[in-house]
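Sanity check

After download, print the first record. It should look like this:
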Amino acid sequence: MSLDSTMDKVLQRRAEVEERLSQAAEMTPVEMANLSRELTELRPVCEQIELVNRLTTEIADAQMMVDEAGDDSEMAEMARTELEELSGQLPAEQDKLQLLLLPKDKDDSRNAILEVRAGTGGDEAALFAADLFSMYQRFAAKHGWKFEVMEVSETGIGGYKEATATIAGSDVFARLKFESGVHRVQRVPETETGGRIHTSAATVAVLPEAEDVDIDIVETDLRIDVFRASGPGGQSVNTTDSAVRITHLPTGIVVSQQDEKSQHKNRAKAMKILRARIYDAERARVEAERAASRKGQVGSGDRSERIRTYNFPQGRVTDHRINLTLYKLDRVVVGEALDEVIEALIAEDQARRLAEGVD
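Expected structure tokens:
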């Protein structure tokens, strides 16, 4: 499909959505919400299309003025100057439009569930997992997102065996989806007296938060167990059976939640995470089918893929998927410079899709 026909199609779709929204009384709340979301996404694209169309028209008008100026040198010079300025502006605006016209991941605007787990490396891996969790918490604060800790399993020395949080805000999943994978750290542990550098790892998973309408969970597909919550080291932190473990029998996905004193609240949190994991599993299945014939994509989303190394002795962060190295480790781990890595990943993904024409 040519660029012109794509532009016409997008403008036509905006008109259809606006017309449909003017008949709000005939729509269900879900349909109205979906159309409102679509219109919000269409507006910046349509504004860019209108800008490109206006520039194209003005260039044609300026060229006509040059052609018709005849012996009027002053008029011809003015028209040529305007033509040069407009012609110089158009390519950049067309590039912006091409990016806006790239098919969007339908989950980009969603909130996300962040899961960080200690990997190989014992106590040092758990400390690194805690550092990563803190990095994303500060990154969320920088962007004005709401970061709500769902569950933390501590090691007792400040490390995390695993930690889960929900992150709510504008385009959270779009910004964080490339963070899924194995993060590796190289540093001298505080407990290391010989000054030797240790390598350990933690796994990050970023899941798009699922809505009730996305996943239809049948009650008979769930096995729900309740038990007494316990803290680090096994000490009891609750005298009632408030902790909840939910098993989704068809997929085998298991979610436990015990941070709240109320069994009802723990169950609600566990169901939220369960929905996200089921939705993510289906998303991964579909993506794997689509990616089977692709080459060079930015990360497969595979949780076992090593994506990044944080080297403390050299003060550098390396993202292995795009061969990017930044000597700003101190600023990345506090969430300040993480945007530089994420922007590079997004740009690489956009460039690949533009080059390959991937939907």
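If your output differs, re-run the checksum step. Summary of this record's structure: The longest strand covers residues 198-208.
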